[in-house]
Amino acid sequence: MPPKSSSKKNQASWFHCESCGVHIPSKARDNHEGSCSAIAQGDVGPESEAEYVRSGAIFTRSLQQRNFELDSLKDLPAKYANMLVFVSEGAMQLAQLHIGQHVVIEASSTAVQPQVRIVWPISEQFLTAVFVSEGDFKLHCTQLRGNLLKIFALDPSCLTAAASVSLKHLNNTETFLKSGQLEEAIALLKREMVNRIFCKDSQIHMNFFNKSLIFRLVRWQGTVEEALAGLSLDSKPMQFVQVTNVTKVQLISENSNQQSVDETISHRITKSQIGGLDRQLQLVQESMEYALGFRALPAGLRVSRGMLLFGATGCGKSMILEAMCAVAEDHSQGNVQLIRINSGEVYSKFLGETEQKLAAIFERAYNHYPHPTLLLIEDVHNLCPKQESSDLVKRVSLAFLSLLDQLSTPRQLKGKRTFLLATSSQIEALHPSIRRAGRLDSELELGAPSPQARRDIIRCLIQTLEHQMSEDEVDNVASITHGYVGADLANLVYAAVLQAQPNPLQLLHLQNALTRIKPSAMREVLIECPNVQWSDIGGQSELRLAMQQAIEWPLLHAEKFQRLGINPPRGILMFGPPGCSKTMIAKALATESKLNFLSIKGPELFSMWVGESERAVREVFRKARQVAPAIVFFDEIDAIGGERGEGEGSSSGSSVKERVLTQLLTELDGVEALQNVTIVAATNRPDMIDKALLRPGRIDRILYVGLPQNEARREILKIKLRPMPVSKEVDMERLVHLTEGYSGAEIQAVCHEAALRALEQSFEAEEVKWVDFEHALQAVPPRTSPELLNLYEDYLKRK
Fold it and tell me: AAA+ ATPase domain: which residues (predicted)?
């Protein structure tokens, strides 16, 4: 009888033979008698042309390339399309296969390796014909053609998840890539292999930048090594392995030495290779050893099973993770299980699959008990963000938090030797719930390294290099690399070594590299200051000394300040008429002191959004603390530090200004100390600045930058006329006398106008004459009003 089916068309398409117990297409009924007895006795040879369905398996010779489109699969990526095999609805029903089930395609020839695909239904008109995608047919299934194929459901007992798989490169030596390229190719290939199922000796093809690479799966290692050690493909059913997100991909070289090319570890990093983080390494190691059972836990003490490392990018978070892997392997003699959770690979567009992947990872960790398991997550804020932008992110965050709760629950016996290390470079973007007790309850911040830490980092970086640097020279480099994190110092040494080739590394090479390698912690606010020296500023010798006393001396002679109990000034205010070199002095200070320099303009702190202006002020000082010692320069500070209560009413603009001022006052002298950060401010109207901003402990040193006197004007003119060809008839002393009341900027304008006057007279002019200066003095009069000068005098008397 034909099989029961709800479709009359299906009933008419198939014929059931009572003698041999198979279902065949109705059109093949007349030719079935010749093969019926052989099928009944199970003696069908590979040359048989019969195509039928029997005992949950489809036997066919019609493997073809799919040349039709299905609306349900038009948006399916090529990777997943190549994992499908298309079978008629009737054949699926007779073989008791369901949509999306993994099936094995086995050839009659034992020389052809079986293939595992996902079955998908097509129209009944094809009957026993089987189709695969064009890419799959060309790369993997051409060898199956001409064979009698058996398609049947994959037995779950024959499938295992791989902890690691070992591949061998089969291409000829001419097509081999360079070592670095081959590692990159393996890393990309792993992404293509995820969720696919293979067997031993399966060939894996890859197109890498127009190079066809072929690999063979030599062996794999499951989660339970003992269960796989005795498996034999000859004596037991064919075993299959599935690659997951946490599977490590390894490459076997020609000399059979296994080389790991997992994209997260290229070589083993030990604690001795990390400089400047001794205290942090000790704290992390102690927590890990207690959690993994390497240290005896005091009675009654609750162990923390999750730790969060956070800090700026390049401070050494990933290196600490790698060092802890080495420590764990040494303690456990190789029995520790290392599981890396890549947040980018965990996410899936299919509903519920992401949560299942996370649960499978933690279940794999538990199943490794009683051996220890170390879980590693980098950039955990991507897996559990504060801003849940979609339902998927919200579901994943909740699932991850639930798994963390299970990790530290006493009832979870298998989790007793499990420890989770997570890192984040954006702590403000991390969901706050993950930081509570019982989850990632231990936290360690990695900030920008101190001079001592930078010295240790540089020593570690050059210990394996050929160099001629003394300890004093290393200290010198460490003292001037403010704001440089470990990654910046590594780039600095790398650039210096390239410049030194083929000679040994010297101090000069590092000094030259400093002009090109900037601290990453300062990239958001770093400005390119002109190369302004103190010698470029005429006069102002007293002001220069005051600035050096306030900023340079506390850094260069810190021990003397401590011995005398002197606290350096927190802030300096320069006030005076416009054009008197206040901003230029700040630039010279940044150049001469070699400190990190943050230049802030008042209007750029204001925002129309509530709270954003205050946040901008906090961010400025957070960055300054991070890269300390540093100078924060506020130009025209009266724009944000004006007297409170000005104007009528409480308009929104005034309200924002007052909130910004309040935030500024808090940052200067609040609960959180401002260490090694000096405020330098400039203004033309000191009388408009709020008195609270100028009290001791905030901006406590006020310096008047007045109009230049005779000696100062003489120096300014010498500096400005130095590059200018001036006629011998030009009387310098007379110019000094005639420019009385001029600011430094106005004296520069006089020199500039005189040179233009000379060009106006003749483009062939070779020098600037006295008549040109007379014209320039008439064109550029002094613009500082007596009223403004009187205001400064009154202010000096009051303060």
Answer: 303-450, 568-709
Contacts for 473 with CB less than 8 Å, ≥ 6 apart: 507
Specify the residue for token string 């002109």.
530
**Which residues have C-beta within 8 Å of that of residue 47, sequence separation ≥ 6?**
none
pLDDT of residue 226: 37
Q: How many residues does the chain have?
A: 799
SS3 assignment for 495-554: HHHHHHCCCCECHHHHHHHHCCCCCHHHCCCECCCCCCCHHHCCCCHHHHHHHHHHHHHH
Residue 51's Cβ-side half-sphere holds a number of Cα atoms within 13 Å equal to 18
pLDDT value, residue 412? 54
Please give the pLDDT value at position 285.
Answer: 92
Q: Is the pTM of this model over 0.85?
A: no
Residues of the chain with pLDDT under 50: 1-9, 173-175, 179, 224-235, 255-266, 527-528, 647-653
Residue-wise pLDDT for 189-204, tens only, equals 888 888 888 888 888 8
Which amino acid, 228?
A: L
Q: What is the pLDDT of residue 273?
A: 85
- Kindly give, in sequence order, each residue whose CB lies less than 8 Å from that of residue 18, ignoring residues fewer than 6 positions away: none
- Cβ-in-10-Å burial (0-12, 13-18, 19+) of 347 comes to middle
Q: Which of 555, 562, 540, 568 is nearest to 701 (CA)?
A: 568
Bridging pattern class, strands 159-169 and 373-377: unpaired
What is the C-alpha to C-alpha distance for residues 724 and 767, in angstroms, rounded to an integer?
8
Architecture of domain 158-260: Roll (3.10)
DSSP state of 768: B
pLDDT (0 to 100) of residue 229: 42
Q: Which CATH number fits domain 451-520: 2.40.30.70, 3.60.15.10, 1.10.8.60, 3.40.50.2300?
A: 1.10.8.60
The token pair that represents 624 in the structure block:
């300054």
Q: Of 3.30.565.10, 2.102.10.10, 3.40.50.300, 3.40.50.720, which CATH number belongs to 271-446? A: 3.40.50.300
Cα Rg of the chain, angstroms: 38
**What is the 3-state secondary structure of 187-253?**
HHHHHHHCCCEEECCCEEEEEECCEEEEEEEEEEEECCHHHHHCCCCCCCCCCEEECCCCCEEEEEC
Give the pLDDT confidence score for residue 231 in this predicted structure: 44
